[in-house]
Structure formats: structure tokens, C-alpha cells
């Protein structure tokens, strides 16, 4: 009798317990924005699957992740997700075309250069006959000289030197003539000052000012046309010049590229830059070659043998023509002939440095882990004497530790700028029923005729939003996603870059490597997949250092769409889906902050302590801080 009663009690308890667990699982799904009916159906199937024996395992802790994954799988996939891999393959093709044209034009270039040199020889002016400082292209190596009566600044074989009593500043990069003529460095006609044009206006520097500068400062002005350094850029360049290992943490758009590109131009050898995406490499090479005239090239597994051979041959020359060699990480891991080429460069003292850009990809704990990046520890093992610089805009403390130990640079000098972008204003707006109309109104009321990006989750969303803004709101908008033909994408990007079009409605395929300074707003029509992604995407606003706004339009159910997209991503295993879901959950927490400072949450996510009053009393308080002070 006693036994029967005990069994009955156990059964009741089991049933109650089970109901509690089922309710917990259901509320987990609903909390994350999944549709309740669908979640119930999915839960029934799960209970059936676990059977009587497995009932006690039906808990949030045991099978919460499997339940969510199964739920995502049952969702009708009516959205057209973007294929970022397609953009990558294509970027490789574009780069090859450009570089091949360059190779084909080499003979023509040489002829032009010879003709230029002979004409310069015929017109050359003896230095001692010059009455005032002047600037011209030297006849031998297409070098540049700034001449003064008193001093010589010479930049030969990658270093500036000043020799009193003589008169030139000399640059010996092969392509330097192009760079400098494009920067319009001019003699302003006076005996003691030089005028050059940076991105904004004319800048005049007196000879005295030039005289006190070191070679890093001179290169920043002469080669890159920058008036000043941004925080920590100078220190990073100096550390590189001292051949130190270095870890640079700077916000998005903080100017990380300069930290290795500048030292690369001053070193006689080649700087090898590891970059995760060909689309990023493409942008860097365009900018180096065309804006600054610095020779840069790339190697990738998608190139043909002859393309690879051409690059390798150049690297094996006594004086390779390229200063920066961009590679994707798989090139480093397990490619014997590339490794031999690097050794050959090193023996000649021409392997200047390894640079690991977007270094957060090294860490499994980062938001964008790339397995090939793990193999980069090999570099320090094989080339212990070659300095390394790692750079990222997103790294929490655990990710940082992981990066330093994986790359085997535990003693690296860590240069850490604040990740805060004080002029970016962060806001979250709850989506209302007619969210397109709401979006149109936000843009019309606050960003009329300004340049911006509206990030969308799927291709179909991009097109719908763009159509709406164009047709209903009469705005100059277009869409951009990886599924478009290359020609269409280039044309869309150009129209936006030149200001012909104000708004791009795009998937995350847009923005990789895009560096438009005057983006005044970034609106997320759907939340990002992680805080890191959000920081990076929203960080494309205000790269000119002027105020800009980052708005996220939020509704609960967008979380399930994000997970759906993640699930559809190639090679997504359930373990990585779980990590991805946790990251998306954190993003959702950001969206749901009611009173807490958004800037503070973003910065604390990256391990930075931030006093909220910095946001509240700063120039662009977030929406929550704004309400608090009003
Ligand atoms: N010292 C400087 N003065 C003026 N402009 C600069 C300076 N340094 C960099 N810039 C400009 O700032 C912009 C952003 O630089 P860069 O692309 O290197 O940023 P980043 O830190 O690599 O950003 P991301 O994290 O997005 O990759 C570029 O247009 C660059 O020319
Ligand atoms: Mg960068």
C-alpha cells in the first residue's frame, strides 16, 4: 500500500515537473521571438522523440539548444539569404584582372618611365643653382626630392635621413612619383615653407617644422597626406620601426592600416599582411596603389598557377617591386613553396614584418573565428626573428589573451586605444506595425539628403526597403547584396560613394572594406547577429570624425530570423550554432536595454570600463542617456 502511494506521488511529481519544463522551453522560444504555435508543435515532436524513458531529460538545460535548432529548421525559409562566399570568389577574380593588366602593362610602363627619365635628365637643374626650396621627381629611381638651401631630407631604400647643408628629401619607392604628384605636394614659392594638399585643404609647413620631424612623421605627411596622427598610430609605427612585436587595438575606422602601411614603406623589404577576406584585400590594394602609389599585391588559393608564379617571381628578385603582400590565411598554413619564398626573403633581410589584420579571427571566442587563422602561430615558430603586428577593432579580454598566445607573441607591446566612438549616437527604436513607413519617416525627418546605410538581413529585405524608400518616399536609394551581378554591385557602390545616391539598403556583404568618410547614419532594419558585428557595421558611420547616428529598429521576432540566417550559413554545425545563438542573444539584450547606457554596454562587452557620464554629458549621448538627462 505504501509503495503504491509512493509511486503515484512520483508520477504526479513527474507530470508537474514535466509541465514546468515544457513551459520553460516554450517561454525560452517565445522570449527569443519565435512564433508560439510553431514552438508548441516543435516541442511536441521533441517530447515524442525523447519517449517515456527520456522525459526527465526534457529540460532547458539538457535540450534547450537542440530544441531551438530544431525550431529554426522547421521555420519556413521564405527569405532569400545572402551568400557571402560568392563575393569572396569574385573579389579574387577582380583583383587578378587588375593585377594581370598591371603585369601586361609593365613593358609599357617601363617605356613611359624611360621617356620620363630622359626628359628629366635633359632638364635637370644642378642643386646648387636652386634659389628656393622646390620639389621634383628625381631622374634615377623616380624619386622625390624636396630641396632647400640648408637641409637634405633623404628617403632612400626606405628611410628618411637629414643631412645638413645639402638639399633634398628623397623618396625611392618605385611608384612614389605617382603618389606624390597625386597628393599635389607643391612648392609654395617661398623660401621657407612647403604647401601640400591633404584630404580637406591646403596645408603649409615651414622648413623648420619639417626639420624637427622624424622619418615616421615625415612619411605620414609626405606619403599619406595626413596632417597628424590619430591616437596611438605614432606609437604603433615607432614600435614597428624598432622591430617589436605589437598588438594594436583601435576602434573601427581608427586608422589601423596606417600602423603597418607606413612602416612598410620605410623598410627596404616586403611586409606580409594576413587578411581574412579578399574583398578587404581588394580595397586595401586599390587604395595603396592608386591613392598613395605604394606597390602592393596579393596571393590566394583561388589564383591560377601562372598568377601565383608571377607574384612569387617578383618576391624572389633581389629588389622585389612590392612593398606589401596581402595573403589570406590558408596561404600561410601548409604551403611549402610560399614558405620557401618567405625564407628566401628573410635570408636577404627583406622580410620586413608579418601583419595579422582583423586578428580577432584567430580566436574561437571571437565573433568571426576562422579556423585557418589558428595556423598563424606557425609564423613565429618558423620566423622567430621577424616582428609581428596584430590588429583588431573587436576583442574582449579572453579573445585578446587567446590571440597573443595563438600567435606566440606573449610579450608583444599592447597598444590599446579606447573603442569608444564619442561622436556616434546609439539608438534603438521599437518597430511598429508598418515598419517600412516608420523607417522612411526617420530618414525623412532626421537625415534628409544625407548619406547612409540601411542594413537588412536578407536579399529580399534589401530590395523591399530600397523600393519603398525610392517609390513611396522619393529618396535616392538603391540596394546591394551578394547575389547581384558584379557590374551592378560596382555601379551601386560607385553611385553611393560619389553621392549620386544617398542610401544603400544592403546586406552585410556591403561595407567590407568600404571606407566612405561622410556616412551620417547607419540604420539596422534588423538587428545584427552579434554585438561585435553591430559595433563593426555601425562603425561605418562618421569615419570623418564628425557626428553620426546609429539606429537599430527592433522587434522580438527578428531574433528568430537572425538564427535562421545563421543556420542557413554554410557549414554551420550545431555547436557553432549554439555559440552563434548566444552571441545573438547578447545582441538582443542590447536592443532591450530600457535605461542602461548603450555605449557602456558596447564598451563593457569589449572589456573596457566606461563611466556612463561620459555618454550622458558627451557630444552624442545614446537614447537612454538622453532621456535620463531630459
Ligand atoms: N592620421 C590620420 N589622419 C587622417 N585620416 C586618417 C589617419 N589615419 C587614418 N585615416 C583615415 O581613416 C580612415 C579609416 O582608416 P582605416 O581603414 O585604417 O581604419 P581601420 O582602423 O582599419 O578600420 P576598420 O576597423 O573598419 O578596418 C581611412 O580613410 C584613412 O585614410
Ligand atoms: Mg582595417
From TrEMBL:
Annotated GO biological process: double-strand break repair via homologous recombination
GO terms of molecular function: 3'-5' DNA helicase activity; ATP binding; DNA binding; four-way junction helicase activity; hydrolase activity; metal ion binding
Coiled coil regions in record: none
Source species: Vanilla planifolia (Vanilla)
Protein name according to UniProt: ATP-dependent DNA helicase
Family under the similarity heading: Belongs to the helicase family. RecQ subfamily.
EC class of the enzyme, as a word: isomerase
GO cellular component: chromosome; cytoplasm; nucleus
SUPFAM superfamilies for this protein: P-loop containing nucleoside triphosphate hydrolases
Residues making up the signal peptide according to the UniProt record: none
Residue stretches making up the Helicase ATP-binding domain: 237-413
Keywords: ATP-binding, DNA-binding, Helicase, Hydrolase, Isomerase, Metal-binding, Nucleotide-binding, Nucleus
Predominant cellular place of this UniProt entry's protein: nucleus
Catalytic activity, reaction form: Couples ATP hydrolysis with the unwinding of duplex DNA by translocating in the 3'-5' direction; ATP + H2O = ADP + phosphate + H(+)
The EC number(s) this enzyme carries: 5.6.2.4
Pfam families: DEAD, Helicase_C, RecQ_Zn_bind
Ranges where the Helicase C-terminal domain occurs: 435-588
Tree of life domain: Eukaryota
